[in-house]
Amino acid sequence: METEREETLALLVEACRRFAREVLVPAEVAVQQTQEIPAHVVRGLRELGLFGMTVPEEYGGLGLNAFEETSLVTEICYAQPAFRSFFGTTNGVGTLGIINFGTEAQKLRYLPRLASGEMMASFALTEPDSGSDAASLQTRAVRDGDHWVINGTKRFITNAIHAGVFTVFARTGPKELGANGISAFLVDRDTPGLSVSKPYEKMGFAGSHESDVIFEDARVPASAMLGPEGTGFKNAMRSLDHARLHMAAVASGLCQRLIDEGLRYATERKQFGQPIAKFQLIQAMLADSQAEALAARAMIERAARDMDSGRKITKEAACCKYFATEAAGRIADRMLQIHGGNGYIKEYPIERLYRDVRLLRIYEGTSQILQLITAREMLREFGA
Ligand code: COS
Question: What pLDDT is attached to residue 1?
Fold first, then answer.
């Protein structure tokens, strides 16, 4: 049985690897120009089942475990990361809450459509004044008979322009309750009072759209609450533990792409009568990058195995995302350096990859927040 599963994974990994290299990478330039993910790419992502990677099989998904999921994400993220954003929020933070804390009715209502890619989901936690300090969020939901009425603004919500359902975090208890006064709701796109702003213009991640989602007396039925009242923050944190591991896999895939771009340039470009790859200072940059990429990959595989065995991976996921995304940043910098002046113009992919990689150290937990989470878990385990 296990062997059959491993064989299926190997086939899926190979299919994702080919799709990334043969379909996604060639589509990158067009995405820069149009800011849209082309229809043939969306079709391919659907055919691979990627919209339902983490959704259990009984709801139409692939039901992958963390090891399997991170293996596929690593392959797909050989191409620019906006392709992953397109299906990744639907699989990740947008869906994990429904999978882990949803009622049967909520699962049946959303998961099959999310898994097929017919519907997309977004995760609405961040606000204009609440980013790293997520528990300080100000969006409020007030009970009114059989309904809740939501007011507030969510910021930088990925895929909001496409989403059919939002997991929205709102304060339902008094301020003094802090994180324990926050609840989660599943809010349908067509809810009166919900509006989505024009996407922000960003320095990179072309094709991924981030908007504000505004709630003005948006009424949702009591059955839209996700998990018991007051558990929204903890549920968000649990989803983020998983999502940070996923994000580390994004960085891991990009590390290999960046290195390959560096290798290609270093072997083609000649200076002083020979390919610059022959120079030891160039080789040192390549070798340091490969070592970091391999280390990141190994950390992710181990944390994914830990998660699959049922362990809480708050510390491990924070370490993985911190290390892998910082490594990707260093590698992007070195590979651009290898390109010299040609790395600074738009002719070569390294210029846009460099801009894309910069976001990885910020979203779904900044490097600094991940350091704090890691140290806090270490001190807790130590009994301090
Ligand atoms: N899993 C389960 N429960 C968790 C948890 C986790 N990973 N992390 C915290 N909790 C629980 C705590 O145990 C605590 O519960 P009790 O009150 O029962 O003890 C509760 O949640 C509040 O936690 P805490 O006191 O640690 O909250 P803080 O306000 O100190 O916030 C951080 C903690 C910094 C970890 C949180 O705000 C965070 O992750 N910020 C970054 C947000 C982010 O990544 N945003 C990106 C955009 S979303 S895509």
Answer: 58
pLDDT for residue 231 is more than 90: yes
Is residue 241 located within the same domain as residue 354?
yes
125 lines ligand 1 (CB under 6 A): yes
Asked whether residue 174 falls in the same domain as residue 267, the answer is no
Tens-digit pLDDT profile for residues 132-191 = 999 999 999 999 999 999 999 999 999 999 999 999 999 999 989 999 999 999 999 999
User: How many domains does the chain contain in total?
Assistant: 3
- Looking from the CA of residue 240, the nearest atom of ligand 1 is 44
Residue 89 pLDDT > 90, yes or no? no
> Tokens 């990959």 sit at which residue?
297
Ligand 1 pocket residue status of 106, Cβ below 6 Å: no
pLDDT above 80: residue 2 = no
The residue whose CA has the least distance to atom 13 of ligand 1 is 234
pLDDT at residue 92, as a whole number: 84
Q: 362 CB under 6 A from ligand 1? A: no
Catalytic residue among 28, 127, 301, 364: 364
Residue 90 confidence (pLDDT): 78
**Residue 58 a catalytic site member:** no
Which of 253, 258, 293 lies closest to 78 in space, CA to CA?
A: 253
Indicate whether 91 pLDDT > 80: no
- Find out whether the beta carbon of 134 lies less than 6 Å from any atom of ligand 1: yes
What pLDDT was estimated at residue 368? 98
Task: Write out the DSSP string of 60-109.
Answer: TS----HHHHHHHHHHHTTS-THHHHHHHHHHTHHHHHHHHH--HHHHHH
Same domain, 242 and 372: yes
Q: How far is the CA of 220 from the centre of ligand 1 (A)?
A: 26
Q: 314 C-alpha vs ligand 1 centroid, how far in Å?
A: 10
Beta carbon of 302 within 6 Å of any ligand 1 atom: no
β-bridge pairing 147-158 and 140-144: antiparallel
- Asked if 84 and 16 count as a contact pair (C-beta separation under 8 A), the reply is no
Task: Work out the mean pLDDT of the chain and round it to a whole number.
Answer: 97
Q: Which residues are 10's β-sheet partners?
A: none
Q: Which of 82, 116, 150 is the last residue of a domain?
A: 116
Cα–ligand 1 centroid distance for 180 (angstroms) = 10
Pick from 186, 215, 230: which residue ends a domain?
A: 230
CA 239 to chain centre: 11
